[in-house]
Amino acid sequence: MLTEVDSALTHKSMSQKIKTLLPFLGPAFVASVAYIDPGNYATNIAAGSQFGYLLLWVILVANLMAGLIQTLSAKIGIATGKNLPEICRDRFSKKTAIFLWIQAELMIMATDLAEFVGAALGIYLVFDVTLIQAALLAAVGSFAILEVQRRGYRPLETIVTGMLLVVALAFAIQTFSAQPEVKPLLSGLLIPRFDGTESILLAAGILGATVMPHAIYLHSALTQRRITGKDAVARKRIMKFERIDVTIAMVLAGAINASMLIIAAAVFYKNGFVVSDLEIAHQQFDSFLGSPIAMLFGIGLMVAGLSSASVGTLAGDVVMQGYIQKHIPIYVRRVITMAPPLLLILSGVNLTNALVWSQVILSFGIAFALVPLLLFTSNKSLMGELVNHRMTTWIGWGITTIVIALNLFLIIQTFIF
Predict the structure, then answer these.
(1) CB-based contact 285:297 (threshold 8 Å)
(2) pLDDT exceeds 90 at position 202
């Protein structure tokens, strides 16, 4: 099959090439949904309204980092036929595996908080119902998407990719309507800068919302048995197509993330509004850009929340099965993970602040996924012909060092001073 695909890509027209590549596309799109969840809305809107285009470069860097990380995650599944938690269980002590499982579950809980709350907020803004009613509708919607998964990963990939495109279209229209200024936009994108502690805190939130630990676990599971390479040549070819999958998906996710900050900078920062609440952001979009744009904002938030919540639930199943060889019904897991955000909604706390802090918490879990990923993908005996190039390993460790250093800074600033 892979030889035929190579031949097709060489000799066929562009439309035929795309058609031939379709069977290999999908896993990265499912994983990339984690990169546009409602936590991204909260951090990017806050960053854009407070600092304009200043932190746009953080989104670019985080997206490049995420692209490399998701490529490594996909590669480990293709090379070994196992997902990252399974390899950790095989290669680490039982105590270490249990610790990694517990922290991974906590990270997924933080993820689910952002995703479920975001979906509920989106429904609340679009349909003008109470938050409690919106939360119940969000629960029904997330269960409906999980039901699709029971028919196999391909139907899930199709529906999640469709939802991703809906979010992309919504933000493309919003960005066009906001009419951002090109010069400061390019400056923010290309010149790395900070402006005080608050900007660094928001940068960490952007990083936590972009480089998602649970997406690392899930992507390795999505590729481990999807298309199996029987020999070294076949696995290399599969990996070639998977890189295309990752590139397309991450470019799309990165564009959506950037547009969130750009819109906030063009609308709120330009007019002197610091917006830290998504409901207020919706109201202000209505005031500055009109009701249709405000409606698109709510629809994007709703769709992103529903799709990413389902992906987070699947990641939780992968983590439990991989680290401790246990499994609970996916619907039971969904009920358990919905409890904390439901309690938050009932308590009446500021949900946007909860979203931002959930992303900061997520940044603490990145290293626990990245370190094993780099250790294993650099292991020749495990990875064979797909072992990391030395430069890839150096870049990967550089990324991990930056993440850990940033997290230490956050701990000092948040809990000591």
Answers:
(1) yes
(2) no
